[in-house]
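Posted in: Protein Modeling Q&A

I'm a second-year student putting together a small comparison for a lab meeting, and my supervisor asked me to include a predicted structure for Tim44-like domain-containing protein. I've never done this before, so apologies if this is the wrong subforum. The sequence is pasted below exactly as I got it from our records. If anyone can share the C-alpha cell output, I'd also love a short note on what stands out.
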Amino acid sequence: MASQMSPKLLMPLASSVHAQRALLSLAQPLACIGTTHIRGLTTSRCGLSEQQKSESAEARTSGGSQQQEQQQQASSSSSDQAQNFYNTFKAGYEHVKSKTAGAAGGASGQEPAAKRLLQTLAQDLREVLLPAQDISSATRAYTGPVATATYDGPTALVLARQQATGWQKAWDTVQEKLGGIPLVGKFLNLKVTDTAAYKKGQELVEDLKDKYETSDHPVVHKVEDIKSRMFTGSEASRAMREIRVRDPAFDMNRFVQSVKLDAPSVVRAFLKHDLETLSQHCGPELLERFAGIFKHFDEQGVFEDPSILFIGDVEIVEVRLMDDDPFIIAQFHCQQLKCTRDKFGNVIDGSANQIQRVYYFWGLQQERSPVVTAEGKVLPPRWVIKDMMWQSMLALV
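Accepted answer (user: helix_wrangler)
Welcome! Here is the predicted structure, written out as C-alpha cells:
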C-alpha cells in the first residue's frame, strides 16, 4: 500500500542531497494522510481540476504540520527518559563510590586491611578474566636443542675447601709441639671407639634395638605409628616435598592451568586416533594400550566424532608417591558429540546432534630431572600422562 511506504525506501532513488531532502519532505506527509487522500492524489494524475489539486495540497500541508508536532513531542519525551535514566545511574554510582571510599579509608588501622582486600579481589578477577599468558604445557615433551652440559638441579653437591678457624689453627699448633712426647702423643691419638667400655656399650645398644624391632607389644606398635605420622607426614605431604625438591618453583594453580591447556589437544588426538600427537604427552605403556584400542576400531572400520564443545575446570583428585616418583591424579569433563560412524560416513551409534558429558581422569607422573635448552633456559621436569580413564555419564541433549 502507498500509505505504508517508508521514507527510507525512497532515499536510494535520489542521487543528490537536495533530491533526497525533497523526497523526504513529500514522503512524510504521505505516511499520515488517509487512504481517501491517497486515492484523491492518484486520481488527480488522470485529470483532476485545479480546485481538487489545491485541496489535496492543503491536506498535505496540515498533515505534515501534525506529523512534525508528533515527532517533536516524541523526541522530547525520549530525551526526558534518557536524562532521567542517566540521573538515576549517576546517583547510584556516586552512592556506591562513596560507600567504597568510606570502607577503604575509614580508620587508620583498618586502611591496610581494606586495601589488601581490594587488591586481592582485583588480582582474583584479573586471573579469572585475564589469565596469565606465560602458561606453558605441562605434559608436552621438549624436542628442541638442549645444552651439552649436564644439570643435576638445585640440590647438586659441590666439593669446597673449608677454611680453618682460629681455634682449629691453635689446636693444630699444640698437637705439633706436644706430639713428640710419648705419653702426650698416646693420649692425643687415643680413640674412644677403641676402648673396651665403648664396645661393650655398643653391643648392649644393638641387643636392645633388636628386641625393640622384633617386639609384638601393642605399645611398641603404637609408638611406631606416632613416629611415622610425626616425622614422615602423610603420603600427600611427602609427595609434595619431593615435587618441591625436583621443581622449587612448582605452583599447583599454574599446574592446573597447564593441564587444562593440554586437555583439548590430547582428547582430540585420542578421538582422532593420532598416536603421533599422543606420543608427545603420554608414556610408552599408555601408548601401547592406545595402539591396541585404535587397531580394534580400524579393523571394524569405525571412528568417533572428534568435535569438542566445552572443557570444564581441572580438579586435583589425589597427590601421592608411586615408585618414589610424585603422582598426581587430575579430573576434568568434556562436552562432546556422541556419534560413531563407519568408513562410509554413516552413523551407526548415537546421533550427530546428541551431546554427552565425558569425564576424563589423568594419572600424571613427574620426571626426575629438568631440561636445559641450548639458550640456557631451565625447563621444569615434565609431567608424563602415565594412565588415562574416561567415562560417559549423561547425555545433555
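A couple of things worth pointing out for your meeting: The chain has three domains: 2-83, 166-232, 239-395. The mean pLDDT is 74.
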